[in-house]
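User: Show me a protein chain along with its predicted structure.
Assistant: Here is one chain, sequence first, then structure tokens.
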Amino acid sequence: MAVGAISPVFLTFLPGAARAWLPQEIVASSVVSKFDETRDVISDLSLISCTLNSAAYETSPLMLAPMQIALPLVGQRLWALGFRHQRIEDGTALVSLMVSLGLVTAVFPCGRGERMISPCCEVEMDVLGGMSGGPVLNSDGLLVGIVSSSFDGRPSYITLIWDAFQLNLKGTVPKLARHGKTSLLHARAMGLVKVKGQVSRNPWGDVKFVLSDAELRLLARSTPLSARDRKAWPEENELKAFVGKWGAHMEAIAGESTIAALEKLSSREMRKFLRSTNVPWRCLRGFASFSVLDFGGIQDLEIIRMEHTVDQISIELSYELAGFLWTIRIPQSKYQGSESIGGFVFLEMQDDIVVIEVMQKGYFKARIEFDQTTGQFSNFSILSVALERPRSQRMPSVICQELIAQLRG
């Protein structure tokens, strides 16, 4: 339960005791208002980290409800829990636990109007004042959303938990605090959050989850045509056919073009790439030349969107370059490093040249054009890069947006 508009207090209850939790950080999704460009519309769904201001944490830790990434089907029964103001006695508001249930009547995967910007659903259910923000559970007792709003009587609107998996905040639980910003999926990987369903997050923060066939059909029927056109998501059958015919060719072009783009980097941008390795900056001063070799090939190529014109298809894709080997050559007279650098870095002498070899792994987003008449690909360009850090460093990857201009060149 939360009380107070500016600095809420969260209460959890133990047998014969209660604890208060103060929020440390609150994050939520937002979009620019369609009616006022100076105003942001914030989602009803927030992710909150709380201070550990209780000695009871070690024996009775605060636990999140088990969750499920799902699109509730029309006719599915959901349960909402919350507290409502009951009456006031001697200036004190008494509250009571409320449970309401109802059937899903509609879903809105792209949100519903200006006020509800997150994926939500409509339920024939009574919710009362004070229940907003309360958990909504499915028949398995798994959290699928929160209470957002209701008209007098019915229906009520439930914001799904989808957006929460795109948010990052600083965790206070000891296992999370040492990692800086964290996410629900990171917490799940550490055994601190239970989530049912296939859900993953790529290095750019995009969340991907797998829905059942029935959920996908409902998603397609409930997504406005304008939204589908704007996002340009390919149809599943079209996508499978295209990848089956042209996937291997795209992988070959992506591999060759990515290596060619890396080899065209300026010395300054090359050093930026190698920041995510164990090579000290001083070791790269005064280098004479460098080259890059594809050592692991393209993996997990995925088409993100396909935009059609008359004869052309503009394709946005992502992929992993499983390993690429840098070879940097530095005159011995200018080399300022030690004899051993460590990590996945190899050092040797060739006459009076110091040769440093560094293995890296990266994730790339790119765009390529496909001519449907000639069956030819062209105009390959890299849009974004994420590099994997060595395990000894704190964060799993670093986004190298500043390299985009150089790679495109």
